[in-house]
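User: Sequence recovery, please. Input:
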């Protein structure tokens, strides 16, 4: 599958989180075993789009369906640092709120992948 680009510019302020995935096993003795699931930190972004039209929602929904939710990766350029990341949707569902007949709000979360 050809890699596409997520072109929609989110509202400010949006949330960016940098974190690690760790597997921590705690034994009955109180000792712990810790293992990194990834060698480096990964970012997640929670993006908000307010007062967008039905056309905007339809286009974003088509992009989401094309990538089968969180299954396939795409490119996204972070407007803060202007770096292009390979990302995917963090969830397998996309929801939006209808404000009026042709005005919607949508929030989605992107997850950095390698």
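Assistant: Recovered sequence (114 residues):
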């Amino acid at each position: 599958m050809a890699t596409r680009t997520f072109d929609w510019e989110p509202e400010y302020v949006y949330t960016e989180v940098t974190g690690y995935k760790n597997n921590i096993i705690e034994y009955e003795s109180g000792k712990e075993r810790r293992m990194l699931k990834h060698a480096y930190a990964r970012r997640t972004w929670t993006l908000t789009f307010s007062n967008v039209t039905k056309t905007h929602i339809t286009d974003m929904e088509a992009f989401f369906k094309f990538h089968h939710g969180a299954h396939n990766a795409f490119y996204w350029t972070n407007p803060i640092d202007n770096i292009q990341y390979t990302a995917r949707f963090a969830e397998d569902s996309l929801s939006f709120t209808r404000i009026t007949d042709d005005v919607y709000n949508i929030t989605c979360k992107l997850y950095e992948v390698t």
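Residues 17-112 form one domain.
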